Amino acid sequence: MNSARCLGHATLLSGLLGSCHPAEALQVRQQVSGGQLYTVATVDLKRDHLELHWINPTTGAPYRTFAQLRARLAKQGQRLLFATNSGIYAPGPKPLGLHVQKGQTLVPLNNARSGGNFALLPNGVFWVRGNQAGVTETQAYRRSGHQPTYATQSGPLLVEKGHLHPEFNRAGTSFKVRSGVGVCRDGQVRFVVSAGPVNFYSFAVFFRDVLNCPDALYLDGSISAYATPDHDTQLAEFAGIWTVSR
């Protein structure tokens, strides 16, 4: 089964999720595939204002929550349309891998080869510069000389040039809520958060075969969440946070 619905004020989930904005290309919808429910945010970089946040420039402290970031954006005259957590992080909270914000590298590339999902090689970087975006394997990114406006490093890579991560198995027994981001053949960026536990294989297949994203990166696991103007699923603090605002 594969179905999708745009989340409007008077439709799905009794109007809790209102995320169809005619003035923007942004679409947030719920989609069912393989018996699993996913929330999919489709971002058009030619029309949508996508940013990555971590440190509040006023306080010097991490934002930690969607609500804190929503309030900050409101003070700047912006309305948060969508938010989701970025890559895996360490205590602080501090991004565990590369974090580039407004062209400044706040955390360098992480070249770890052991310890947790981040070291389930290959891992990679999701980067944005102007209306271009990519998901690039970490060492290829290092060699590329990319100078993005925003970037986050996480792992593992879910899909690379149309190929699933070599360690993924259809019968994999690690089931968790998962989030990820893909750059798709239509040029759109798609953030995905699963509603329930899913293994890496099924999550990667959803990006490649359903969303048509030849490159996709895992962001985080059980704590993953998202927010729209009318809905906020966050239960734990975050380090990096991606937002679409206007």
Major sheet summary line: 8 strands, antiparallel
Distance between the termini: 34 Å
Segments where pLDDT lies below 50 for 5+ residues?
7-19
Annotation field: number of helices = 3
Mean pLDDT: 90
Task: Tell me the Rg in angstroms.
Answer: 17 Å
Shape: globular
Strand order of the largest sheet: 1-2-3-16-15-17-13-14
Give helix and strand order, one letter per element, not per position: EEEEHEEEEEEEHEEEEEHEEEE
- DSSP E strands, number: 20
Helix content: 10-25%
The overall number of domains is 1
What fraction strand?
A: 35-45%
Q: Could you say which structural class the secondary elements and strand pairing correspond to?
A: mainly beta
In quaternary terms, these chains amount to: single chain
Keywords: Glycosidase, Hydrolase
GO molecular function: hydrolase activity, acting on glycosyl bonds
Protein name: Phosphodiester glycosidase family protein
Pfam families: NAGPA
Please characterize this protein's 3D structure:
The chain has 246 residues and is mainly β. The protein has one domain (2-245). The protein is 11% helix and 37% strand. The chain contains three helices and 20 strands. The strands form four sheets. The chain has an eight-stranded antiparallel β-sheet, covered by helices on one side. The chain has a five-stranded antiparallel β-sheet with strand order 4-20-5-18-19, with helices on one face. A hairpin with a 2-residue loop joins β8 (99-101) and β9. The radius of gyration is 17 Å and the shape is globular. Residues 7-19 have low confidence and may be disordered.
